[in-house]
From TrEMBL:
Any single GO BP term: carotenoid biosynthetic process
E.C. no: 2.5.1.32
Protein name: Phytoene synthase
Catalytic class of the enzyme: transferase
SUPFAM superfamilies, sorted: Terpenoid synthases
Family note: Belongs to the phytoene/squalene synthase family.
Cofactor: ATP
Key words of the record: Carotenoid biosynthesis, Transferase
């Protein structure tokens, strides 16, 4: 496998229509991901934007109703074309094709992601926390793996920590959305936990209320997420230096959702937890300095069982990537300037507020 080259011009050009469309998808979706991505170096930011756009479109397509299996067959065929270098005529497919070509991105990650979307569309429920880990590994651990891959750090341990960070973020999402999911007929809390607490999951779905038992289950899920955030943190120190602050910022903001939920009494049934823009700004700014205190752990734990297939499945490709190099293309002063510009823009938005949506 060849040494990493600069990103293709089409993907680097932020004035191109394709990438502008991908950026618009990100802005309209995950505000946390979009804000943290502004801290990424240009060599990674465009690829991350393309990945997000594809994931967003694929999720919407599977979740839109109709024949789930037919929609998935279409998406898998589109992946066939992307990996053949002949993408279908969709903005996100063209962008992802460039990422695949440039970074030799393992298809395993994207196939697993689509499988997770399928589980969602079919309304799968999860008996144990290990079953829930398996779901989170597919819909979020894969995203962590792909981000780690395009950054240029593909050791087994680093990839495992990136997957686990994705799983932690998904646990936070699930804890925050218990009420919204229930009203849509979905439940992600492990059924074993609910049964062990004397709660009939199906009965509760008919009339979801923020009982003390349910709150205790939400708190338990946040405990699980916190343990995974802590487990994943040393992996940030193994990323290329120009990428660490962005990932630390994303981890901090998602972790803050859980902390805010605790401060609100663990009620994610009658309300939706929101982290204020001001608090996000503080976390974004603090990431630059705090990430310097994150160190790699020489005694790395084995991968979480649920993400092992992602790590093991691409080890042969890791061997070919062992000597790939990354090329930081911005000085620290340039990156700080970008952060200040982001803060200024967000302050302006506070003076002229628009509807704000937490991812």
């Amino acid at each position: 496998m060849s040494e990493l080259l600069p990103m293709p011009t089409a993907l680097l050009d932020y004035e191109s229509n394709d990438l502008k469309s991908c950026i618009a998808m990100m802005k309209g979706g995950s505000k946390t991901f979009f804000a943290a991505s502004r801290l990424l170096p240009m060599r990674v930011r465009a690829a991350a934007t393309a990945l997000y756009a594809y994931c967003r479109v694929a999720d919407d397509m599977v979740d839109q109703g109709g024949d789930v299996h037919a929609n998935l067959a279409i998406l898998r065929h589109r992946l066939d074309l992307i990996y053949a270098g002949t993408p279908a005529d969709f903005v996100e497919d063209h962008a992802l094709s460039l990422v695949v070509q440039q970074h030799n991105l393992p298809r395993l990650f994207l196939d697993a992601l689509l499988e997770g979307f399928e589980w969602d569309a079919l309304g799968r429920r999860y008996q144990t926390i290990e079953d829930l880990h398996a779901y989170a590994a597919r819909v979020a651990g894969t995203v962590g793996a792909m981000m780690c891959w395009i950054m240029g750090s593909q050791s087994v341990a680093t990839l495992a920590r990136a997957c686990e960070l994705g799983v932690a973020m998904q646990m936070t999402n699930i804890a925050r959305d218990v009420g919204e999911d229930a009203r849509n007929g979905r439940i992600y809390l492990p059924l074993d936990w609910m049964q062990g607490a004397g709660l009939d999951a199906l009965q509760w779905l008919d009339d979801p209320q923020a009982t003390e038992i349910v709150k205790s289950q939400i708190g338990r899920l946040l405990d699980e997420a916190d343990a995974l955030y802590q487990r994943a943190e040393p992996g940030i120190a193994e990323l290329p230096p120009d990428c660490r602050a962005a990932i630390f910022a994303a981890s901090s903001i998602y972790g803050e959702i859980g902390r805010q939920l605790r401060r609100e009494g663990l009620d994610s049934i009658s309300r939706r937890t929101v982290v204020s823009t001001r608090r996000k700004l503080v976390l974004l700014a603090g990431a630059w300095t705090q990430v310097r205190w994150v160190y790699a752990d020489p005694e790395q734990p084995d991968p979480l069982e649920a993400i092992r297939f992602l790590v093991d499945g691409c080890q042969s490709e890791m061997v070919g990537c062992a000597n790939r190099k990354y090329f930081p293309n911005r000085t620290v002063s340039h990156r700080v300037e970008r952060v200040l510009a982001l803060l200024e823009r967000l302050e302006n938005e506070k003076l002229n507020p628009k509807p704000f949506k937490i991812p």
